[in-house]
UniProtKB/TrEMBL annotation:
Source organism: Verruconis gallopava
Lineage: Eukaryota, Fungi, Dikarya, Ascomycota, Pezizomycotina
Broad class of where this protein is predominantly found: mitochondrion
Family indicated by similarity: Belongs to the TIM54 family.
Any one of the GO BP annotations: protein transport
UniProt keyword Transmembrane helix present: yes
Bilayer topology: Single-pass membrane protein
UniProt name for this protein: Mitochondrial import inner membrane translocase subunit TIM54
Length: 476
């Protein structure tokens, strides 16, 4: 027909474009509820690509930090609840509370504040929950903990009656407190007190001070006194005479002529003298300076020839070694981020060790004799016993006893700053850099806390029972 259009060659019609009148597309209708609230008609859509990247990173980081901190609190609460029943145990009125000793030292190339924060964050909450008391031995420099611990042991030996040139005076505060307690009938804690050592560097100083305190002499040797004098006089020159020395002033007056030696009392001179006296008074009121760190009283090579003191007990106090990861450096940022997001694992490891110290179950340190190839600690303690600056050719490194004390926290030495090894003097002893040296007589008497899972389950069961009783009382 004439009205019919011819078909296309392909047999299909071309697509017809939609009819548009030029008006914009109407916005979707708003929810009546939101409209009655007076809220604008938002059009929900996905954010842009850059905003998606930003919110994904921020959300993932926030979620990871929140999850880690929540699990960390839960784990710390678990260990705190496990030892909480110890604080409710009755204690006689004439018996002192159990007191632990905390050994704390500044990490290499850093200050003491980080070590204190580590103690307050991980160790202190569990000790408080167990109702335990503690003393602290701190060190800001290498060797401070060693010197303080060795001096404390020597003082104990003197108080036990060992022969010494310088006896402990009765006016010392510690002696006066002990005498007062004996008069009042106050007794010490019957069981073992124990020590908590934080960090590998502190642990090495602890072991060195333990050997020095028990195997070294009670009195200061002459070579140590000479070393202290050299430290006080670094130039090696004798101290100059002070201006206020009467002998020096008398000599100067004798050498001066008669006219110059006569003293003229002037008002201005008297004022200057009074001002000098006023300035000298505050200096006299200042606290005495802390004594410098003395060198060790005994070298590591003299351990075997040193006699045992009569006051040495058959078992030394048990100890717990707490991990203290501390890593510095910009290029170690990925490792530091990983550790920052996994503090829950660190809290669980530290909580286990502190709970073991609270329950006061201990065992001897393990050791293996013979070839180091069959030693269970060969991976962590493959270094020789003697220090690098000492020459000990009597025993080969393969035929010696390997003690468990050597391998504890040895991996932390890999995180130490390079300045610790760079600034080292090879002719002097360095407790941090030298290998740990152990005497079998001391190492065999050392004890270590261990955790029995039955104690943890019993402690948690007591806490749950106490909570149920409290809920029943509230319901009544």
């Amino acid at each position: 027909m004439a009205d019919e259009k011819p078909a296309s060659a392909g047999g299909s019609e071309p697509p017809v474009a939609p009819k548009t009148d030029g008006a914009p597309k109407a916005a979707p209708k708003q929810n009546p509820f939101f409209k009655m609230m007076g809220m604008p008609n938002f059009r929900f859509k996905l954010p842009s690509r850059n905003w998606m990247i930003f919110w994904t990173i921020v959300g993932s980081w926030s979620a990871a930090v929140y999850y880690d901190r929540r699990e960390k609190k839960r784990i710390q609460k678990k260990w705190a609840d496990a030892v909480a029943h110890l604080a409710r145990e009755p204690l006689p009125s004439n018996q002192m509370q159990r007191k632990l000793t905390i050994f704390l030292a500044a990490p290499p190339a850093d200050g003491l504040l980080n070590a204190r924060e580590h103690f307050h964050e991980y160790v202190r909450p569990i000790l408080v929950s167990a109702g335990l008391d503690w003393d602290a031995i701190e060190g800001r420099r290498e060797g401070d903990v060693r010197a303080a611990f060795a001096e404390w042991l020597r003082k104990r030996r003197k108080m036990a009656g060992e022969a010494t040139k310088n006896t402990v005076p009765d006016t010392e505060l510690e002696v006066m407190i002990e005498d007062m307690r004996n008069k009042l009938g106050v007794k010490e804690w019957d069981g073992p007190a124990g020590d908590i050592v934080i960090g590998r560097n502190t642990w090495k100083e602890y072991v060195r001070g333990l050997h020095e305190g028990w195997l070294g002499p009670v009195d200061m040797p002459e070579e140590v006194e000479k070393a202290l004098e050299e430290q006080s006089r670094p130039d090696g020159k004798p101290d100059e005479q002070k201006m206020g020395d009467p002998s020096s002033s008398a000599k100067t007056e004798d050498t001066l002529p008669a006219e110059e030696s006569t003293v003229v009392h002037d008002s201005e001179q008297m004022r200057s003298i009074d001002e000098k006296k006023a300035e000298e008074k505050p200096k006299e009121d200042e606290k005495p300076k802390k004594p410098k760190q003395p060198p060790p009283f005994i070298s590591t090579s003299a351990y075997s020839s040193a006699p045992l003191p009569p006051s040495l007990p058959s078992e030394l106090g048990p100890s717990a070694v707490i991990v203290f990861p501390h890593l510095l450096g910009f290029f170690n940022t990925p490792i530091r981020i990983y550790r920052y997001l996994n503090k829950r694992k660190l809290a669980d490891e530290i909580g286990r060790e502190v709970a073991a110290a609270c329950f006061a179950r201990y065992r001897p340190f393990e050791h293996s004799s013979g070839s180091m190839a069959t030693s269970p600690f060969v991976e962590d303690s493959a270094s020789p016993t003697a220090a690098p600056h000492q020459e000990d050719k009597s025993s080969e490194p393969g035929d010696r006893d390997v003690w468990e004390q050597e391998s504890l926290l040895k991996k932390e030495e890999l995180d130490w700053h390079k300045s610790v090894r760079k600034d080292r003097d090879p002719n002097k002893e360095s407790v941090w850099n030298d290998d740990m040296v152990l005497d079998p007589r001391i190492a065999g008497r050392m004890r270590r806390f261990y955790l029995d899972e039955a104690d943890v389950e019993r402690g948690l069961a007591l806490v749950n029972a106490h909570k149920r009783e409290a809920e029943e009382d509230v319901s009544w």
